[in-house]
Amino acid sequence: VPVPGLSFQNPDGVCGALGAGGVALTAEEKVLLDSSLVWLVEADRQLVGEAAPAQLSVRCCGETDGRFVVCLPGVGTDRSSATYAKLWAPLTQAGFSVLALDMPGYGRAPGKPLPSRTGYDGALLLGVLKAFGAAEVFVVADGGGAGPFLRAAADMPELFGGHHVLINPVVAEVPPEFVHFMQKYGGDVKALFSDGLGSHDSPFSMATCAQFMYFCETNPERAEFVMLLPPRGPNSIRTAMVKPMRPEKWLYTTTVADEGKKECKGGSYQMINFSPECASELCEYFTSPRKEPVREDGGPQAPTQSALMQGKENDSFRVLVRVRPFLDREKGSKGCAAVTDVQGFPRDPPPQRIV
Length: 355
Description:
The protein is α/β, with parallel strands linked by helices. It has helices at about 25-35, 45-50, 85-95, 120-130, 145-155, 175-185, 210-220, 275-285, and strands at about 5-10, 35-45, 55-60, 65-70, 95-100, 135-140, 165, 190-195, 225-230, 250-255, 270-275, 340, 350-355.
């Protein structure tokens, strides 16, 4: 779909090659890569707020009716949209299309990173989603890739689905509008934390996620905190501050050689390995129903129709009525219903019931 300010080119045609030296691909992954397309997207200078246009790279896998999972890698020379290649097949098998993005200056995208990237990356993401005709979008992002998602969801909340996965999210702040999106539209996030996830990540690198950790702590009903590997102490000994919440090797990274620098600028990149249990859990999470939204006053959202109006029958519904004798000041009053003692009840005095 044409989008003002964006132009799409497909210089490689159908792109089955993945710059992944030594990575074993399954038959399903090979078929998926053989049918995937890589687009070079040019954003004009007004859209990116720069003196010159900027370019980003988009790989598209699978075909659906507009339900997309968008993969947003973190920043750095060892991060690439190919970081998520091992998740693409499970997602397409679950009924999603996949969009894997490289923002300007990262991964496959040429040029340098935008100096004012954080002010425009949300708009860039929304433009790409509109161009691909996205109707409902779910996100998996790591590191600085979480920022574009938060800003895009804050600007256009109705476009995003109810569930999103963030791995070691690094953000300067969580926009208040994003919190409003999760409450009004029934959204939530699963936040995965792993210290030293990448081989180049220093110990206690998870400290850069403090802002989102605080968000999880203050919004437990909308953000699930999942510790994979706790911070490392001296001599790389894992501390016992927080116990791992998933098995070892549930999710981990390996360094992939990319001598041709096709997928990244640094000659190698981090590929996230999703165990079958991990991929299954994430796919079930994406396909599960939304959480209930909340009203502006913080209370639960009232239903628009009663169960009877919806033709439903609740056979577990019960009403408890407590009945007491008249008080002295009430004697002489007429009761609203006839009351009698329950007969044969193994208690003295027996309860009463409305006749």
